Amino acid sequence: MVSQIRTALANALSSVNGLRSSATIPDNPRPPIAVIIPTRIEYDLNANRGADQYVFTITLMVGRADDRAAQNTLDGFIVGSNSVKSAVEADRTLGGVVNTCRVTQMVNYSSVSVGETVYLAAEFTVEVVA
């Protein structure tokens, strides 16, 4: 189920103009990119294994060639019609893969290093019930 949800989230994010998405953690990300990472599972929300709650982190990275341009690019993915939240919540069942989902927060707006490259990034928390 984790792989299916990761893929469904990546597919939802592919609708965001100018953003790549990856259901797996790439060795060499090509920004702007949103990477889906499973963070936590809370089992047995309902009796008899009716549903579990999955929490995913979407790490969105943009290039830092110019600090101001990088921040403006990242800001465009945080709020509005081209945002991570809008894309994920456009179909809360993620194409019928889950019962429901929602983006609950954006945190850690900061620089991150992958290998020897520094990116500007933000993390989004997605709660999924399936």
Structure characterization notes:
With 130 residues, this protein is an alpha+beta fold. The protein has a single domain, classed as Phage tail protein-like (STM4215-like, 2-Layer Sandwich), CATH 3.30.2000. The protein is 23% helix and 40% strand. The chain is built from three helices and five strands. The chain has helices at residues 2-13, 67-78, 84-89; strands at residues 20-22, 33-42, 53-63, 100-114, 117-129. The chain has a five-stranded mixed β-sheet with strand order 1-2-3-5-4. A hairpin with a 2-residue loop joins β4 (100-114) and β5. The protein is elongated. The protein starts with a helix and ends with a strand. The mean pLDDT is 95.
SSE ordering: HEEEHHEE
Tell me the count of domains.
1
- Give the amount of beta strand, in percent: 35-45%
Q: How would you sum up the global shape?
A: elongated
CA radius of gyration is: 15 Å
Strand order of the largest sheet: 1-2-3-5-4
User: What is the helix content?
Assistant: 10-25%
Low-pLDDT residue spans: none
Give the CATH level 1 class: Alpha Beta
Structural class: alpha+beta
List keywords for this structure.
3 helices; 5-stranded mixed beta sheet; 130 residues; 23% helix; alpha+beta
Write the layout of secondary structure elements.
Layout lengths: L1 H12 L6 E3 L10 E10 L10 E11 L3 H12 L5 H6 L10 E15 L2 E13 L1
Parallel strand pairs: 1-2
Antiparallel strand pairs: 2-3, 3-5, 4-5
Summarize the structure.
The protein has 130 residues and is of the alpha+beta class. It has one domain (2-129): STM4215-like (2-Layer Sandwich). It has helices spanning 2-13, 67-78, 84-89, and strands spanning 20-22, 33-42, 53-63, 100-114, 117-129.
